[in-house]
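User: Hi! I'm a student and our assignment asks us to look at how structure tokens line up with a sequence. Could you show me two examples?

Assistant: Happy to help. In each example below, the sequence comes first and the structure tokens follow. Example one:
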Amino acid sequence: MRKLSLIALCALAAATLFTSCDTIKRFLNRDLEEEDYSMGELYVDEYVKEVPYVPTPSAEAVRSGNVNALGIEREPGDNEELYNAIQQWMGTPYRYGGNDKNGVDCSAFVGHIYLQVYNRQLHRVANDIQLDADLISKSELREGDVVFFTNSKGRVSHVGIYLKNGLFAHSSTSRGVIISRLDDKYWSKHFYKGGRIR
């Protein structure tokens, strides 16, 4: 009888242990799902449906070949290496967490360009790239600065690279890597700060 009670007690303990493991596993999975959702809310730009900016250089600039790799009219002092590096990524689709030409998110795109052109390793997410930069106003922006945007909750959730004349390159949620204008209705409303990488 005592042996039977001991076996029953062991079986009950084993059942409880396995049930507990499943319960713990379900709890951890739920917790991870909630964390992923929170991270997504914090770092992923909201879905922004936009028409990419298409540069329209003057006929004279086109005739003389004074147009860079992105189709933007060249000006003295332009960093051709920056424009060429961005051109290599143009049209790459957006993918949250993506880090290559099969799909790239905004911070990975900026990180690749900075590593290639300026030999600088940046933080991986948009919000943290602020740690690599001195924040500046829109009027202080110059070629190669980063531009930060907030989501509807006021958190920095998107980053791009400023070019010139109000243009910036970024990985847009709806279009992938494109050029946009800072005076676009959405981007103007959500612009937070520029950043000059130290």
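Example two works the same way, sequence first and then tokens:
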Amino acid sequence: MKIKYLALIAAAVAAISCNCKNDKSLVIKTDVPARPAGQESVIGLTAEPMDTVRIGVVGLGMRGSEAVRRLTYLPGAKITALCDIEADRAEGARKLLVDKGMYEPVCFSGEQESWKGLCQREDVDLVYICTDWLNHAPIALYAMEQGKHVAIEVPAALNLEEIWALINTSERTRKHCMMLENCVYDFFELNALAMAQSGLFGEIIHAEGSYHHNLDPFWDEYWHSWRLDYNSKHRGDLYPTHGIGPICQALNIHRGDRFTTLVAMDTDPFTGPKSYEARNGKPCPDFKNGDETCTLIRTIKGKSLLIEHDVMTPRPYNRMYQLVGTEGYAAKYPVNQFCLKEKLTAEANEIGHETVYSGDKAKELQAGYRSVILTPELEEAAKMVGGHGGMDFIMDYRLVYCLRKGLPLDMDVYDLAEWCCVSDLSRISIENGCAPVEVPDFTRGEWDKVDGFKYAL
């Protein structure tokens, strides 16, 4: 046991110093199953254009009910079916549609698997999934088997088994499987991505993302407190996609680069057991999820990412979002800030050889790098309809737009896999003394088939 323990410590040290690529024997291996016969990659997948996207929404709690409201503003979107285990939630969403003069949907409720009836309907093209995490993958898998495209709230998959099942089913059925990662559509992230793609920051070599959000005031908002219960039973970064999604687009993950190795570390669960006992009236001495989880990832091109998860401490909301390039830097939190080596204006605040932009100077710099998808009309509509300031609406708009035009979606099943795998792989690393873990190539060798992230237009 002592020898094994020392080996694990050595592995963690090797990973943190980025020497793990030189001694692959220290890395915990993960399987990449062979692609089943008859399946093909879904990189760049397209489907027949559809004038109207007929949508069935499953799960009508906080996220689902808001999705129904937003979708009513989208041209070419038609909600034909609704499902929630609680009948009053399905009825509330139905009434919203009827009161707005929309098409009256069919409702499903009352049973744990009522969603199967929705997935089987011929008047549903897209199943939009907003349930608790445990049901995300099962519903998506069943829906694709019924010939439906799927859009799944974050995180779309909880472990490698679910991830590979979603990949294989999407490849076999040729149906879109997209995760509803809204943060890639936030205004700052869209803007910074355009700046990075223009070359303003040089080559992006490091990026940081996180989910720092004290959920103590919100645990009771989740049906039967399922989210706190899940935290009590699982270790690792349980919610990585908001932080990792936008920076993966800037780093061209599976569009010219890919993850190779991951190493994670967490604190003890100082706060979680107290929150659990306060709500359940009994102690939880074996609460799993640490207050803070940190994950380092290295790519095949020698880039690095730092991802953090903290839903317990009182630190202010922060998705971290930083891009570090050879010629410049962008950061969203705690204030919008850009740093450039080149001296562009005499008014800028010079620090060494860098030029720092914040406040009005940052806005002036940003104005010259508008995202190609953010037309003035879409920006105005997003701010009017809302949804986390408008990014939720942009996400829905792009999903429906691409389906109507028969274009590849902005996020594919491999994005889903890469962004969600951090949860399971960080757990494996932590449970093995913070050892480095190999990140599977979910594209099965096709990570450099596409040259850079692009929007289909």
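Here is something you could point out in your write-up. Residues 1-20 have pLDDT under 50 and may be disordered.
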